[in-house]
Every structure is written in structure tokens, then in C-alpha cells.
Design a protein that fits this description.
carbon-sulfur lyase activity (chains A, B); homodimer
Chain lengths: 459, 459
């Protein structure tokens, strides 16, 4: 009896000791090299917001509206309900804007690498320690990235940060305009063009520059002493073409907008090597909301003027945005430095193929042609993967293409806004998968109706 | 024997079980309600950066330069070395800029409440869920704060966010200028005035406005159909006075810059109730680097034009800056909602008293008078605590006051930049304690020399 008692006791003791060992090792493992103190609450709040279940059709944010102590799901278009699980059957495919949410899943998959903990006293000062308004480590990271991707020459270039590329586009126009000249510089872009160029230039009503429309109209202009500033967009927004400057001459300056010059959207034939090149985090990592862009500038005087613009406009770029950009770009460069581009290209190529295939049988709609391009980054000729479909309505009765699509439950962006005919509409392919799926669904329905109509008319 | 064995075994078992219990409870306690997963690495990195020892004269940041795997200390002025422990004896007191680092210790003391964990996919979109570029919860927080502090009326006011107040000052000038008028609006400010008003207005060279100097020059101007825009700064930068508008009339608009209208710097006699009021996070929480400001606007058309300015200028304010502002303002409002103001006022009052006392015996230098003010927030008449000392050199030979101070190891900001005589210099009192201590040290030395000179001259 006593023996049994002893045996039982020993078994219990051994079990208990094993449990102790497990708990101690687990405790040490959980503790890692660092026992968290003041950051723990923030980390818990961050994980709690991320853990709110939104059915894969939305997400809850740390600074979302709070109901019952928990941030609410913010649902993708066409989904609603507290957990975004309810599909709205009469939903419209809204593919108007350029929200680059196609990259959101990449960051969700890389949660641990991309999270950051911001202390309450993080960089309160106006300036960094070297009295600059710009983070030196971020600038270094940007130079490394361009070298790794091979999409821009950074040697001998100055860098200016901007609140998105939006601010830098206008800063560049200011910097390239003649000082106190009697005639304002003429700002042009080859059509179709990104509407913000004109909207900005018109709105700020400077004495020094004026929007003058299509670059091609000035190609053979005899007035060769006019100061001209040409926006050159490559790949172009809306049509994805790798535009080159139309205008040349001693009084011509160009602003090269390379927002989309990343392997997600185009082959990279060679590093861009122009005098003024503008890039943005938005179309690289997908963080449009962070509002961070940069310009690579050859000429020191232009760099100085752009820096002055940013300084007098807003005293530099938010240090929080700079910290975020730094963290994200570090993740982009980790590992092989190819992951995000492989993800981005695969996603965009897949969408373009699906849309092209759905429209291939249509006589009513056509898409832009995008030539296959050798990509020095992927070291292969690669299939098209543009950010936008530049759709044309081919029929006379669909002359107002935007309206025709709207009737069919698709909101695009009117071609007229890009300076071209109303028979064109831009469809965004870079939004969420839900947005793209809805677009594809509506397009397929439209094309099917076309067949029906054709069938009826030949009966 | 068996009994002893059993007893021993039971004792061991009980001990082991107690240890089990302790470990489990400790494990649960450490884990809190949440077992951290993907946020742990970020939290550890954040704490590791904060734990770098910088002797109380500097701090290391998450995005600082890295040496041996650890971010380096960024030292306050006058301190150097890897841990900022070496005082530079020949150091100059640099009190030129308006870096509000006097509040840094407040945030270090409130580390757990003010930390935040940002997920890699946090708010990637251009817009919030309601299609606005502005966070609704942040806007609500701002309204609550003004009501709690009693420094501005927010009822019936629109709110526009800006990249610091800097951007909003210029946005307001645009919004208040007449559209397509033949004569540009005249932009004025009563002297001494914050130099950015002029620098911005001159730099952006709009057809619609022009800087025209001192508001007082237009007080009795017969040309009463001129459009006038007056910057009214209360408390004023540089001299801390609660300025009122100088100009009135049907063609006069005012932009009320209330950057310093917080209990740190002034008594709050009543809520500000003007048509266009501009505020900034910088002088409220001390986060100049976040670049976040807001304007309270009465007129819807003005609000719309300011919103358009921000939209075309930079597509709204960084979501990272908005998240940070939201988090910080939540901490400001926690508890009694008085902590930060008590801290801020105590610090600034202490500095002002020390400086005033050091200069009280001087015949060479004088400070501005600041009338005691009843403060509705603290519900008492409170001692002066201005952000800047507006120092006057009284002697003819010190007419270039900036130079006289520089010779004595003090860098201020020249009075001429504020539109007044060179016998004035602005000294910043809102920088780090090290900066203030250095200023006080140099001032005391100067005043002591004055006594010596006086003693010599009367010998």
C-alpha cells in the first residue's frame, strides 16, 4: 500500500516537475531577451485591433470608431455588417480611385517584420540631429533601393522628400519656373495625362507658371524662347505607356513622374537618368495614406528651390511618415529584396490577364496595348501588368463611355479628365481584390449581354 | 521509513505544485489578457532604442543611425560623446528656434500611456472609410479638447487638418483672397510678427495676394475697398501679447494664429471665437516633428477652399501623423485633463521667473512686460510663462543686439526678422532644459560683467 502511495506521489511529482520545466522554458521563450514593460499595453492594443474578425473583407484599425470597447471593422466596398460578411448584391464596382490596396495582403503576411512601436517622445523636434528636415537613414535606404531595383540613377543626385509625390510635382513646377520673368512658364503634358498636373497648376495661380495643355501642340512651336515645363509620366497614368519627353530645347525643362516605375507595373528596361525624377511610396509599398514621396534632382539650384518650397509650405515631412517609410523600405529590402515585387507583379499580371481575357471577345470595348518589356530586375521579358485599364467604348452610342459603364454598375474615371475623348474611361486595377472581383463580375456580365444582343440581332 | 518517504514526496509535490501555480499565474500575468505574437519584435525594438543610456542629455531613436547594432544617442546641444555625458565647455546657448522640447520629459514620464504599435497595413488607403481625408475620431478629440480647455469655440465650426499650422496659414491666405480679382489682396500683420507670414506669401508669388507689411500702416487707409488679410497672433510670436485685430471693415479678413493659445504659455481669458482660427500640435503636446495642425472655420466656402488647397497640395495629412495626434490627444485628455498643462505651465513659469530674476538688476537688457491674466482653465490669475523672451538691448552701442548677444555666446533670432528694430532679439524658452540652462548661464555671466563694468566706471 505504502509502495503504491510512494509510486503515485513520485508520478505526480515528476508530472509537476515536467510542467514546471515547460512553464519556465515557455516563460523564458515568451520573455525573449526582453521583458516588455511600457510597450506592452500598446502592443496588446495593436494586436487586439488586428484580431477583430472582418471576414477577409475589411480590417479594424487602432484609430477606428470604437463600439463596445473595440474598434469596428471598416469593410471593403460591396461588403457590410459588423464583420463585413454581408455582400451587397446591388453593389457597384467602384474602380475610380488609385488606392493601391492590392498590396495590403503582402503587409498582413509580413506582420511581424513590418510592425513598429512608436514611443510618445519619438522625434518631437522640427529637425533631425544634423539640423536637416530629412532622415538620413531613410535617404540612404531610398538610394539602396533604387540601386537594387535598377529603376533610377541616384549617384550625383540630391534627394528632396515630399508629402507624397503630389507636393513634389508642384514644388518642381515652382523650382523650374523662371524667377521674376515677365512671361510665366508654360506647363504642359502629353495627353492623356494625370489630371492633378493641371488642377494644381491652375489652383495655385502663380505669376510664374500657367497650364497650357497638350505637349504635342508645342512640339513645332516657333516661339522657341518660351519657358516650357513638360510633365513626362512613365509609366503613364492612365494608359501605362513608358512615355518619353516630347519637347526638347534650351528653354524646355521636364518633370519625370515615375510613380509607377516599379516592377509591379512595368518591366524596367533601364535605370531612369533624368534631371528631375519624382517617386512615391504610395505605388511602391501601397501606403498612399502615409503621404511620402521623394524627388531625385541633378541640379543643385533646383534642389535648393524645391527644398525651400517644402520648408515654407509645411516645414518638412512628418517624422512619423518618415519613420513609417523607413520601416517599410527596410522590409522591402530584406531577404532577396524581390518578395514584394514578385507579389505585386503576380497580382497585377493576374488581374490584367483576367480582364483582358474577359474583354477579348468584346466588340464593344477595347483595352490599351502594352508591349512586352524586358525587365532588368526580373531578368526576363515579362507580361503586362499595368495599374490601370484604359478602356475604350468602340460604339458611337457609347460615346459617353463613363455613362455607359455607370449604367452597367461600373464607376471608372472619365477620359475627358485626362484630356482625351469621352469614349475613354480609366479603370483602376490596384484596389482591393474585392474591388477587382466586382469589376470583373460586371465586365463579364456586360460582355455576355453583348453576345445576347448579337444573338438577338442575328436571329 | 515508508511514511517518511511518503511525507517527503508529498512535501516535494506540494512545493512543485506551488511553483506550478506561481508560474502559471506569472505567465498569465505577464501575458495579460493577450499573448503577444507579431507585435513582440517591434515592442522589443522600441524598448531597446529607448533603453540606450544617454545620460539624460539625449535620447536614441528607432530610426537613428545604428552603430554595433544599436541606435546611437542623439545629444542635446552642448553635450557630446557616445552617451551624451561630455559637456562642451565652450558651448554656445542656441535659443534661436522654436523646438518645443520642454514637453519631452512629460512624454517620457508617460511612456506606457503614449506608446503605440503601428501594424504594417495600418491605413494604407488615401481616404478614411467615410471617403474623407480626415480622421473622424481625431476631429472629435480636437473638439472635446477645446471644450475642456475652454480656449476656442468649436460649435458651428468646420475643421481642416494641415501639415502643421504652417500649411494652414498659407491655405487660409489662398482661401480668403478674392477669386480672379484685378488687385491682389494685401496681406498684413501687426509688427513684431512671425516671419513665416511674409516668407510664405512672398515665395508662393500668387496673382491673388501680396505681403504689404505692418497692419498699423493700413489702419486709417482711405482706400477702403482694398481686400486686406490680417494675421492676428495671440499670444504673439515673438512677444507673447494677446494681440487683437488692428483692421476692421467689410473688405478685411483675419487669420487668427493661436499656436500658443494654451495654458502652458498664457492665461485663457475666454474661448477664442473668430472666423478663422489656426492651431498646431507642435505647441500643445510638443510634437513639432509630427507636422499636424488644424483650423477652425466658420464660413463653409472658406472651409471648402482650404480643404481644396490641402487636397491639391498634398492629398491630405499623413495618416501616420493623424494616428499619432489622436493617440497623444487621448493621453492629454486622460485623468483630470490638466496634467500636461500643469507640467507645461510650471516649466515655462519657472524658466520665465529665472530669466526675469537674472535680468532684473540689468540696465543693459530688458524684457517685455506680460500682464497677469485670469485663466479660466486654472481658475486663477496666473504668473507669466511666455514661450519666448523678447529681449531689448538698451544701450546705443548694443544697437545690433543679436551681435552683442552672439559675442556673449547666445544665439537668438534677430528683431529685424520680426519687422522691428535690431535692438530686439527673440530668445526661445521652449527648447530642452539643457538649452535653457545654458541660456541662463550665459545671461548671468553677462549681467555679472555689467556689474563689474559699473563698478569699474564708478571707481
Amino acid at each position: 500500500m505504502a509502495k503504491i502511495q510512494i509510486s503515485l506521489c513520485v508520478v505526480c511529482l515528476v508530472c509537476s516537475l515536467i510542467l514546471n520545466l515547460l512553464l519556465v522554458s515557455n516563460h523564458m521563450h515568451v520573455g525573449g531577451k526582453w521583458e516588455l514593460s511600457w510597450s506592452r499595453k500598446a502592443a496588446e492594443e495593436g494586436e487586439a485591433a488586428a484580431a477583430v474578425a472582418c471576414s477577409g473583407h475589411g480590417r479594424a484599425y487602432l484609430d477606428g470608431l470604437v463600439v463596445d470597447g473595440s474598434p469596428v471593422c471598416e469593410c471593403n466596398s460591396c461588403f457590410e455588417g459588423p464583420d463585413c460578411s454581408q455582400f451587397s448584391p446591388d453593389c457597384i464596382a467602384n474602380v475610380d480611385g488609385g488606392d493601391p490596396l492590392f498590396l495590403e495582403p503582402f503587409w498582413m503576411q509580413n506582420a511581424a517584420r513590418s510592425a513598429m512601436l512608436v514611443a510618445g517622445w519619438h522625434r518631437m523636434s522640427y529637425a533631425f540631429n544634423n539640423q536637416s528636415l530629412m532622415s538620413q537613414v531613410l535617404e540612404n535606404q531610398i538610394r539602396k533601393l533604387h540601386t537594387a531595383v535598377g529603376n533610377a540613377v541616384t549617384q550625383g543626385r540630391f534627394i528632396v522628400f515630399g508629402t507624397g509625390s503630389t507636393q513634389l510635382l508642384n514644388a518642381a513646377v515652382y523650382a523650374l519656373s523662371p524667377d521674376n520673368s515677365s512671361a510665366p512658364a508654360k506647363v504642359v503634358a502629353s495627353f492623356p495625362f494625370y489630371p492633378v498636373y493641371q488642377l494644381q497648376t491652375d489652383f495655385f495661380r502663380s505669376k510664374d507658371f500657367q497650364f497650357q495643355g497638350d505637349a504635342y501642340l508645342w512640339e513645332n512651336n516657333s516661339d522657341s524662347t518660351s519657358n516650357l515645363i513638360e510633365f513626362v509620366t512613365a509609366p503613364n497614368n492612365p494608359d501605362g505607356q513608358l512615355n518619353k519627353a516630347v519637347l526638347h530645347g534650351p528653354y524646355v525643362k521636364a518633370i519625370h513622374d515615375h510613380a509607377y516605375y516599379w516592377p509591379h507595373f512595368t518591366g524596367i528596361p533601364a535605370p531612369a537618368d533624368e534631371d528631375v525624377m519624382v517617386f512615391t511610396l504610395s505605388k511602391l509599398t501601397g501606403h498612399a495614406g502615409t503621404r511620402f514621396g521623394w524627388a531625385l534632382i541633378k541640379d543643385e539650384a533646383v534642389y535648393q528651390r524645391m527644398s525651400t518650397y517644402v520648408k515654407l509650405n509645411c516645414l518638412g515631412i512628418s517624422r512619423d511618415a518618415q519613420l513609417r517609410a523607413y520601416k517599410l523600405l527596410k522590409v522591402v529590402m530584406e531577404g532577396s529584396g524581390r518578395e514584394i515585387f514578385e507579389f505585386g507583379h503576380a497580382t497585377m499580371k493576374n488581374r490584367w490577364e483576367k480582364l483582358s481575357s474577359a474583354l477579348s471577345v468584346s466588340k464593344r470595348f477595347s483595352l490599351q496595348d502594352i508591349a512586352p518589356q524586358y525587365c532588368t530586375f526580373f531578368q526576363t521579358v515579362r507580361a503586362a501588368s499595368p495599374a490601370y485599364a484604359w478602356l475604350r467604348c468602340e460604339r458611337e452610342e457609347d460615346k459617353d463611355c463613363y455613362r455607359a459603364l455607370k449604367k452597367a454598375g461600373i464607376i471608372g474615371r472619365e477620359g475627358t479628365l485626362f484630356g482625351t475623348a469621352s469614349s475613354y474611361v480609366r479603370l483602376s486595377l490596384i484596389k482591393t481584390q474585392d474591388d477587382f472581383d466586382m469589376l470583373l463580375h460586371q465586365i463579364k456580365k456586360l460582355v455576355a449581354e453583348e453576345d445576347d444582343m448579337h444573338a438577338r440581332s442575328t436571329m
